[in-house]
Design goal:
Largest sheet: 6 strands, mixed
Strand order of the largest sheet: 3-2-4-1-5-6
Order of helices and strands: HHEEEHEHHEHHEHH
Strand content: 5-15%
Radius of gyration: 21 Å
Helix content: 40-55%
Structural class: alpha/beta
CATH architecture of the largest domain: 3-Layer(aba) Sandwich
Number of domains: 2
CATH superfamily of the largest domain: SGNH hydrolase
Shape: globular
CATH topology of the largest domain: Rossmann fold
CATH class of the largest domain: Alpha Beta
Number of strands: 6
């Protein structure tokens, strides 16, 4: 009799495990491709059990030390990017994980794409994980650099990445715990004699999850842009349309991001990466797969080239 009860218990536990796996993976995949309203609440519930366990990778006293700091490759000269050259793109890039090194696959740039390391103020060949940002996977920015050069619009691209995964806008704006990273990166560029040509911001997923009001997002972003100007970074700013991470995102945040150019001088529409919602583009329905990283880079390329053509 005991053996029979034990067998029933094991069968029940296996059935429960199978249901949990189906909810976490099977329905999650269905949501990613077809987005049926019935499946979404269950897949969101399963993902919510996992995503909050993700560690914020900047939990140290001195936030200027966060991210990948030490290079495993020789430095190269920053000098080509210190002179004003319209054929160079100098990209000041930050935000949360999809602006950092959380992509599925690493990438080494094949063109004249260089990575400025905010930690030591030196330049290095662009290879993932990029120096300055956190995470140990792939990044969109080296791919973007290669695409910009291949387009013929630029002959060199310098990337200044310092995004931190799992962060909200209030942490980056004036008074936030990560704001010193913004100021420090600007100071390091000033010491090196490098002037950014484009500011690329990719963030919004954490604010979508937190339910941040659209008016608050606009207000905080305006303060962040003003701080950039105060630090001598006068380049045009391009905020992405980005709110998807483990769910279908937030129309409130997307609407606020679309409205930023209307409310803040010097701000222009960025890449719409929420449009990359297919599971084939996001290996964990948050961070980008190889296919997603290439499409992500393509969207940024189109944004930058369109802007450059518009001001010629």
């Amino acid at each position: 009799m005991k053996s029979r009860y034990r067998q029933l218990l094991i069968t029940l536990l296996i059935a429960i495990l199978a249901i949990c796996m189906l909810m976490a993976f099977g329905l999650g995949a269905v949501v990613g491709k077809y987005r049926p309203a019935l499946a979404k609440p269950y897949s969101d519930w399963a993902l919510a059990l996992v995503l909050p366990l993700r560690q914020v990778n900047c939990d140290v006293d001195d936030v200027t030390r966060c991210g990948v700091a030490k290079a495993d490759r020789p430095a190269v000269s920053c000098k080509p990017f210190t002179a004003s050259n319209p054929r160079n793109a100098i990209l000041f890039t930050f935000g949360q994980s999809n602006s950092a090194n959380f992509g599925e696959t690493r990438y080494t740039a094949t063109q004249n794409v260089v990575n400025f390391n905010m930690h030591d103020g030196k330049c290095y060949p662009s290879a993932d994980p990029l120096l300055g940002a956190d995470g140990d996977g792939g990044s969109v920015w080296g791919r973007l650099g290669d695409q910009l050069i291949a387009s013929g619009a630029f002959e060199g691209v310098l990337i200044i990445p310092f995004g931190i995964g799992g962060t909200a806008l209030h942490e980056w704006t004036t008074g936030g715990r990560l704001h010193p990273r913004v100021k420090y990166a600007a100071q390091q560029l000033n010491r090196a004699g490098i002037v950014p040509t484009h500011v690329l911001w990719h963030q919004g997923e954490d604010d979508a999850r937190a339910g941040t009001a659209g008016s608050d997002y606009i207000r905080m972003f305006a303060a962040l842009v003003q701080a950039l100007r105060d630090y001598g970074i006068n380049a045009p700013v391009f905020p992405a349309i980005a709110s998807i991470c483990g769910d279908l995102g937030s129309e409130t945040i997307r609407s606020a991001q679309r409205a930023l150019p209307e409310h803040i001088a010097g701000v222009h529409p960025g890449a719409d990466t929420d449009s990359l919602s297919d599971m084939r583009d996001r290996f964990d329905y948050c961070h980008f797969s190889e296919r997603g990283l290439q499409a992500h880079a393509q969207r940024w390329k189109e944004v930058i080239l369109s802007f450059e053509q518009g001001r010629q």
